[in-house]
Amino acid sequence: MACKKPKVVVTLGFGDGQAFFTFCQAVLEQNLESQCVAVRRNRAGEEPNDDVAWVRGNEYGHEFYGHLTRFLHAPPGLVATEFPKASVDFLFLDDSDSGTEIGADLRIWQSKLAPNGLLLVHGTTLERNDNPKVAWLEWTASRRAVEVSEGIGLGIALQPEASEPGEFLLTRLFAGKESLAEVVEIYRLAVARIEAQANADEALRKQAALETRQIWLQFLLDDRWTAQDVMDDQARHISEQAQLLEERGGQLMNQQAALTEQLQRFEALRRDRAKAQLIMDAQQEQVRHWLGVSERLKAEKTELKTELKSMKQLVQFAKAACRRGGKCFQASSEPKTRKPLPAKILRELQRIPRQLGLLSPLAPPSKKGKPAPTKVTPPVDRYAAWIAEHEPDAAALEAQRCSAREMKGRPKFSLLVPVHDTLGRFLDEMLESIVGQTYDNWELCAVDAGSTKPETRERLADWEAREPKLRLLRLSGNLGIAENTNRALAAASGEFIACIDHDDVLAPFALYELARAFTDAPGAEIFYSDEDRLGLDGKRHSPFFKPEWSPSLLTSFMYIGHLTAYRRSLVAELGGFRKEFDFSQDYDLALRATERSRGIHHIPHVLYHWREHPASGSMGGKPEARKSNLA
Question: Within a domain: residue 41?
Answer without folding.
Answer: yes
